[in-house]
Structures are given as structure tokens and as C-alpha cells.
Amino acid sequence: MRLTAHTDYALRVLIYAAVAPGGLCRIEEIASAYGISKNHLMKVVRGLSEKGFLKTLRGRGGGLRLALPASEIVVGNVVRAMEDSFSQAECFRPENRCVITPACGLKGVLNRAVQAYLAELDTVTLADISRKNEALTELLSFSD
User: Fold this and answer.
1) At what angle do helices 38-50 and 27-34 cross, to 10 degrees?
2) Strand 63-66 relative to strand 54-57, pairing
3) What is the average pLDDT across 77-106?
4) How far apart are CA 62 and CA 29, in angstroms?
5) What is the pTM of this model?
6) Whole-number Cα distances in Å, 85 to 15, 55, 58
7) Cα 10 from chain centroid?
8) pLDDT band per the 50, 70, 90 thresholds, residue 23
9) For 61, which DSSP code?
10) CATH number of 5-139
């Protein structure tokens, strides 16, 4: 299973927001900490906000913060919300042209694998993957 860069960045934004001192951060800070394009992160933040994971605050002193406690943000839900599709093979796509699809068992196996993958992600919250610690704080260049 491979996540898109969009979903990867979404998880990174959420981790950053969970660890940020005071809980408020800015896109520019996140882009700098991860070495990611600010423009790309703006799209990611918009999606996270629309899906209810982030709250954005406009104006002077604005920024972004988690919309829910980190312990209530389930990683599986974030992945489902941010991924367009979990198509693992052509047989999952609407334009399927594989001639053996009607008799092939691969689609069922791949579907069960995706469900198992998501079930595992459903056991983890943002709090689990972003526990505040010195190493994470240092790596993200927060100054206390």
C-alpha cells in the first residue's frame, strides 16, 4: 500500500500541529520544518480543514491548530479522508480493461489487504504518533 504525497504531508501537518507549543502554528513554519513547498501545504491544510481535522484562524496572530484533541484523530480516518482511491490494480478502476476480471480472485485478495491496512491504521491516533518528546521537538525546530 502506498500513500500519496498529499496524504503523507497531511499526516506530517497534523503531527506538527499536535506537537506545536501552544497548539497554534503557521504553514510557513511547517513548510520550513519539513522542507515542503508552502503552496502544496496550503492545499493540504485546506483539505484537512474541510474534513474537520484542522481549524484555521485568519488575521494577525492567526494560523492553524487541531480541530479535535489528538487522541480523537484516528490515523485511519485521516488516510481515508485524504486519499482519492485505494485502487491497487486495474480491476479496481472504472476503465478496467483486464479480460480476466470476471474470473480472477486478485481483486478480492487486494481488497481484503487494503481493509486490513486501514483496520491497523484505525488502531492508532494522532496522539499515539505525536507524543511530545525532546527528539521530535528538536527535529521540528521548535524553540521552547
Assistant:
1) 120
2) antiparallel
3) 82
4) 13
5) 0.87
6) 23, 25, 32
7) 4
8) confident
9) T
10) 1.10.10.10
Grid cell for residue 47 = 483539505
User: Radius of gyration (Cα) for the chain, nearest Å?
Assistant: 18
DSSP letter at 72? G
Distance (Å, whole) CA 25 – CA 37: 16
Q: For residues 69 and 17, what is the distance between their CA atoms, to the nearest angstrom?
A: 11
pLDDT attached to residue 132 = 66
What are the beta bridge partners of residue 57? 63
Return the domain boundaries, the chain: 5-139
Q: Which three cell numbers stand for residue 134?
A: 525532546
* Mean pLDDT computed over 13-37: 92
In whole angstroms, give the CA distance from residue 62 to residue 49. 14
Residue 87: strand, helix, or coil: coil
Query: Which residues, 6 or more positions from 116, have their beta carbon under 8 angstroms from its beta carbon?
Result: none
pLDDT at 131 (0 to 100):
82
Q: CB count, 10 Å around CB of 120? A: 11
